Amino acid sequence: MAIVSNYSQDEHQLIIQDLKNKFSWALWSRYIIAAFAIVLIYLGLISDAYMQYSLGLVTFLITYNIIAHIISLVKTKYSLWQITTLAIIFQVFDIISITVLIYITGWLDSPFWYLYLVLIVFSGFGMFSYYSFTVFLIAICSAVFYTGLLFSAYIGIFPLYGPSFNLTPNELLISINNKAVFTLASFFIFASTIYYFSKLLAEHRAELSRKNYELLKTMEEMKDIDRMKDEFVSTASHELRTPLSVARENMSLIKDGVIGDVNEQQKKLLSTSLTNVDRLSGILNNLLDLSKIESRSLDLFPQINDLGEMAKKAIELLQEKADHKKIKFELYCPQPVNTLVDPDQILRVFINLIDNAIKYTEKNGKITIGVESTDNKAIAYVSDNGKGIPKKDFSRIFVRFSRLSDFDEPAEKGSGLGLSICRGIVEMHHGKIWVESEFGKGSKFIFTLPKVGEKK
Amino acid sequence: MSEKKPHILVIEDDPDMVEAIKIRFEANNFDVSVALDGIEGLSKARTKNPDLIILDIMLPKLDGFKLCRMLKYDEKYKSIPIIMLTAKIQKSDVSRGKEVGADAYITKPFKSEELIEKVKEFLAKPA
Q1: SS3 label, residue A26
Q2: How far is A323 from chain B (nearest CA, A)?
Q3: Which of A238, A249, A277 sits opposite B20 (nearest CB)?
Q4: Staple partner for A161: which of A49, A50, A273, B46, CB 3.0–4.6 Å?
Q5: What is the phi/psi pair of residue B27, to 5°?
Q6: How confident is the model at residue A161 (pLDDT cuts 50, 70, 90)?
Q7: CA dist list (Å): B21 to A49, A102, A271, B11, B54
Q8: Total domains in the fold of chain B
Q9: B106 touches chain A (CB under 8 A)
Q10: What CATH number is associated with residue B53?
Q11: How far is B20 from chain A (nearest CA, A)?
């Protein structure tokens, strides 16, 4: 049992479960063997001389199998050593009863000989895959047992049965000798082969189950961590949001003159405070979303959508802001480009990109939004004629909280999260996003998405 | 509505928030009742006969989703509009709010004009 103690508690359970399955398999196969024997007897394939022994043995097999069946029904919980002992006892019984059955029904000419082989093979691969050495031992034991039976018959301790019934003593001796050598040799080769293969199998299986178990465990842990992180982020954002909303509401109460008169300067200060509170809550929302995007736990609700429509919607939403700076939009969208995406999220990508473009474009500038498609991709871009982005910042700008070092326009504050959210969303849709820019001449943000539903 | 002031029940556990909402609505010519936990909110909703309820989700004793469901599945009270006002902004929470029968879902921090507009909108509808 030393080998067993290497396994953990869960693996014990696995082994027990495995053996229990093998038991029920063995139970039914024994019934089948008994039925097979009855059919043989019924068909007259077994001569009358040893009919009574055959019947006795079949009866024994059935009785013992019924007892085993009852045991397995009554006792459903086993410890490892109990089930192992049971398995060995049953196996020994099986082999003894079938060895005797073969002996009685005609040695190697007996039809049960093949059953016997099948039983050993299956027990090797099935019942004892964890204890293949036992199979080896059992095969050897039964070979010795069978040879012993033959010799005891020759000496006269035991009656001799089978086709060799009418041989002279000399012929009998040769026959027994031959049979014994043949039996021992074939058993030995057989047992060794099975031992070797079942050992290999057992090792593989143990290794696999161990790895499987470790993987499952790691997965559970990861899930736990993920859940905790999600919970933490959502609780933290909730805790931050509540006081923020009180502050906002109170400020706006004062500003709106509900409490008493406010002068213009006070109003202006409160206005600024309110704008900043709103900015703060915007950052909070973005942070929450970003954490979900990064842990890939943002729920997407993909539908087939025209990318151009989403671009139009984003332009409509930001029209007012652009009018403020007298920036003109130009939409280039020659034909519908269908994609399977979450429209809310991709709209957000457009809004973020266009909003950025508005921020970094001078008054009277121009922003071009385009939607095109190639054979297998949908391409969208937002380009402006603003300041552009130096090459060294190309990859940095998609990292959260990073903003361009060369920009210092106090009026255009962003959270530094917009582009990383864009990247996250596009990547979750199996797309790519990048920037092309020449410093001083404007920049162009491009993203691709997989395309669907296009006529060829 | 022109003679009687509309009556609003605010169920919210943060006293500062309650105070702010109360001042805002009273200034806009509403009657305001206040409940600081779920159980109190439920009994006030049943006894004070409010025209509209503003409901937080994270409440002591009885959470907002449950409270909302208890009112919305009760023939007697299901006509009272319920606006959920909460810091929970996840899609799953919003859809759960809809599931339990909330008429609107507003997330904190909210703009008070928005809230008042929503409230007026519901009160203008024929019951």
Answers
A1: helix
A2: 24
A3: A249
A4: A50
A5: -65, -30
A6: low
A7: 104, 94, 19, 11, 10
A8: 1
A9: no
A10: 3.40.50.2300
A11: 6
Is residue A2 scored above 50 in pLDDT? no
Whether A246 sits inside 8 A of B92 (CB atoms) is: no
Contact B14 A281 (CB under 8 A): no
A143-147, A164-168, A365-369, B25-29: segment of lowest average pLDDT: A164-168
Task: List CB contacts (< 8 A) between A278 and chain B.
Answer: 109
Instruction: Compare all CA atoms of chain A with the CA of B92 and give the residue at the minimum distance.
Output: A299
Closest Cα of chain A to B70: distance in Å? 25
Using a CB-CB cut-off of 8 Å, the residues of chain B touching A244 are 108-109
Q: Which two tokens stand for residue A107?
A: 């040695």
Query: What interface predicted TM-score (ipTM) does this complex get?
Result: 0.75
Rg (CA), chain A: 41
At residue A189 the predicted structure's pLDDT band, cuts being 50, 70 and 90, is confident
Q: How far apart are CA A327 and CA A348, in angstroms?
A: 20
Residue B105 included in any domain: yes
Report the gap between the CA of B74 and the closest CA in chain A (Å): 30
Range of B21's domain?
7-119
* Structural domain includes residue B125: no
Q: Establish if B72 touches chain A: CB-CB under 8 angstroms.
A: no
B63 CB within 8 Å of a chain A CB: no
Q: Which residues of B touch A348 (CB under 8 A)?
A: none
* CA-based nearest residue to A349, from A411, A298, A295, A425: A425
- For residue B107, is it within any domain? yes
Q: What is the DSSP string of chain B?
A: --SSPPEEEEE-S-HHHHHHHHHHHHHTT-EEEEESSHHHHHHHHHHS--SEEEE-SS-SSS-HHHHHHHHHTSTTTTTS-EEEEES---HHHHHHHHHTT-SEEEESS--HHHHHHHHHHHHHS--
Closest partner residue to B20 (CB to CB) among A253, A277, A278 is A253
User: What is the C-alpha to C-alpha distance for residues A415 and A420, in angstroms, rounded to an integer?
Assistant: 11
Residues in chain B with CB shorter than 8 Å from the CB of A344 are none
Tokens of A389: 């982005």
Question: Does residue B106 lie within any of the structural domains?
Answer: yes
pLDDT value for A133? 63
